[in-house]
Specification:
Elements lengths: L2 E11 L5 H12 L2 E6 L5 E8 H12 L7 E9 L9 E3 L1
Parallel strand pairs: 2-5
Antiparallel strand pairs: 1-3, 1-4, 2-3
Length: 92
């Protein structure tokens, strides 16, 4: 079992459409911890911590457009550290 932490920035129509809530629900289904936060530029930052396959599955879901209420134009993903101390997935 390999735990990884990745951060994604999701751009498009992703604020005010339930995007963070649906991302949180998807992450919980996959057993991930982390967060989904609105940023001032209109994007959403998603921190994902958990099994590599589960993190990859959430990234695929984000890249596929997330919830139907959203419009995802692009997703930028980078590895990150320090997420292993999180005990849940939150929205900000």
């Amino acid at each position: 079992m390999s735990t990884v932490a990745k951060k994604a920035w999701v751009y498009g129509q992703v604020q005010g459409v339930g995007f963070r809530y649906h991302t949180q629900q998807q992450a919980k289904r996959l057993g991930l911890t982390g967060h989904a936060w609105n940023l001032d530029d209109g994007s959403v930052e998603v921190l994902m911590v958990g099994e590599a396959a589960a993190v990859a599955a959430l990234i695929c879901w984000l890249e596929a457009g997330g919830p139907r209420s959203a419009r995802v134009d692009s997703v930028r993903v980078e590895p990150c550290g320090g997420g292993e101390l999180l005990d849940r997935f939150s929205t900000g």
